[in-house]
Amino acid sequence: MAVDRRIFLQETGKFLILTGVASVAFEHVLAGTAEAAENYHLTDHWWAMAIDIDKCIGCGGCVRACKAENHVPLEPFYFRTWVERYHVKPEDMEHPEVDSPDGGYDGFPERYAQGDGTKNFFVPKLCNHCAHSPCVQVCPVGATFESPDGVVLVDKSYCLGCRYCVQACPYGCRFIDPRTNTVDKCTLCYHRITKGLTTACCEVCPMGARRLGDLKDPKDPIHAFLRDHKIQVLKPQMATGAKVYYNDLDGSVR
Amino acid sequence: MPALDKDKRHLYRLAVLFAAGILAFLGLRAVMVPKGFGRYGFFRAGALTDIRSLPISYAGRAACADCHSDIVDMRKGSLHAQIGCEACHGPLEAHAAAPDTTKPRLPNGRALCLGCHLENVAKPASFPQVDPKEHGDAGPCTSCHNPHHPEIS
What we know:
The structure holds 2 protein chains of 2 kinds. By secondary structure, chain A is α+β, with helices and mostly antiparallel strands.
């Protein structure tokens, strides 16, 4: 039997179409059924945080609440959020003295004197939930990701603990959880904000110095905050699309 | 089926090998790639549900108001009204869910107040701060100030 071009093309065509259909069907079976839809829609939100440095009193309430809510190890070197104290000589902005005793967990014992001609203030820090996050880019397995609603999360069941992301984060917001040997970081209290609650740190902040905001909600007060203040993000030169917006951030803060 | 020409048989063998290879690939992929991976991006979609289902510890001030409206009324007009209940009382979701079985411990007034109001040069100057050596006496702050409405007069 001689195979002419016509038959050859017909047979190959059939083969390609069949394998194609089979693999698409297989994908579908693998993906399973979508989770039951709830009243929280991923595409309706774009989370961010607004921090007003002029209001922070360094009480450490946010640090304690974060550790309690998220079961962060209590050792003083694991934090999802922490507070730094800056002590800046106005004429030497490039060398601020920064301290953060236990991350501010127990507040800040007085170290400086009134009227010594320096500038002193607190800077609360947390994951900036960058829109173009370097930590996500380096993850070799897709265990850390930007969620469709703008939160950088870690899939703990999938993390290898390779520490690439810990190094990649320009803000030092990640650590290895010693209990699981996987990476851990601020989730922006994803388990709370998707239920309509605010984050634990914002819930307890007595001055309202930190506020959760939804940039896709036109009625959210964060829009007024961003409009009415002179806003800066940390390390804007890194172009990470950071979404923690600071009011009155001093140039000495890094 | 006519006997295959010798010069065509190897093509069929190749096709079978090829198909087996594809099947093996799909099989391995099914085992190694978690369910839902790639639905929203390069990650496992189920991770979102996993994280969302974590339990909360802080009930939020709105929850407290449901049962403790007397305290909410007491706080009206005070500068303390803006502070979440759990900033002073600690995480109380367990209490809010079952108030009869979990009784919260009342916070220690003095240490609690000074945690926020102790003088510190790094605090914003407009924030009311006290030096406990000079202000009040050594007793609890709550002997003069109501924690839910601390303004005197």
